[in-house]
Design brief:
44% of the residues lie in helices and 22% in strands. The protein is α/β, with parallel strands linked by helices and 330 residues long. It folds into two domains: 3-45 and 190-326, Rossmann fold, CATH 3.40.50.1000; 49-187, Calcium-transporting ATPase, cytoplasmic domain N (3-Layer(aba) Sandwich). A seven-stranded mixed β-sheet has the order 1-13-12-11-2-9-10, with helices on both faces. A six-stranded antiparallel β-sheet has the order 3-8-7-6-5-4. The radius of gyration is 21 Å and the shape is elongated. The N and C termini lie close together (11 Å). Bound molecules: adenosine-5'-diphosphate and magnesium ion.
Length: 330
Amino acid sequence: ATPTAVMVATGVGANHGVLVKGGDALERAQNVKYVIFDKTGTLTQGKATVTSTKIFSGIDLGEFLTLVASAEASSEHPLAKAIMDYAFHFHFFGKLPSSKDDIKKRKQEIFSQWLLEVADFAALPGKGVQCLINGKKILVGNRTLITENGINIPEEAESFLVDLELNAKTGVLVAYDSELIGLMGMTDPLKREAVVVVEGLKKMGIYPVMVTGDNWRTAHAVAKEVGWHSHVVVLVYIGMQVGIEDVRAEVMPAGKADIIRSLQKDGSVVAMVGDGINDSPALAAADVGMAIGAGTDIAIEAADYVLVRNNLEDVITAIDLSRKTFSRIR
Ligand code: ADP
Ligand code: MG
């Protein structure tokens, strides 16, 4: 392709909300063999909601939510934000929310009246958060976080968790003063276009892969949902595979980049689509890094492409554009 063709393609991309940083990235996209999707915030909307709570110790729901929300107040994670909304609703209206309410303005003001003082806050990527409340350690996050701290997960809690996960929900565990005090089930719906985009990539001869820090049961349930649309019955009947079959779960942030590098070993061109801070090493390692426009600044910086519309269809737009610009058969 001539420099002019590259310039034109860059402009066409920009008009569609596909920003590409340079001709090299534009050229590499034509040969993409694998597209690695981050789960939370990329395939899913990144707008989680709490669907259930279960409390094991003597505390009541209000006390429980106060503890959890206080611990999560400084986290940027989508799960943390959803927990804050849930707790806010409970304390403001005296009942659990029945739907999403938009009361952002008064939120901070009211929160400050009842949130507990937190010391030594730390966000632990891929795991959760930890801090001190009343001099005692509180942990909010996944199994790894809890067991790493030497805290036992009772049988009853484990079976509740498994049940959530089989239903594509993320289980968030809460430990206070070295004891598991409760669990929350959370759901984050798929982006509407996820199904079509995954199918579209397969038709282009590209392998979709899902990578996530979330646990494998939830990840597999979500990957199956990606194949869930009106044709699913017919496709299963004629023996076609639907959804994302290649799922890599319970991957720590550094592990996402390792997965990219292992796929690149045989010379395959690998694209990564992500939104979070923990996706940035993988976005940088990929031949074609694509950041979701609504993602964190660090992810956007590490990527070659920015998909400003936050629409996964633009993954296909970007690859198409490269194929059309650099196609040898013209
Ligand atoms: P993904 O790779 O799907 O974007 P992350 O790596 O951000 O997921 O997180 C992995 C897991 O760590 C989450 O599914 C959740 O169980 C736990 N986690 C991370 N941050 C938090 C938080 N602030 N509160 C609760 N759980 C968290
Ligand atoms: Mg993410």
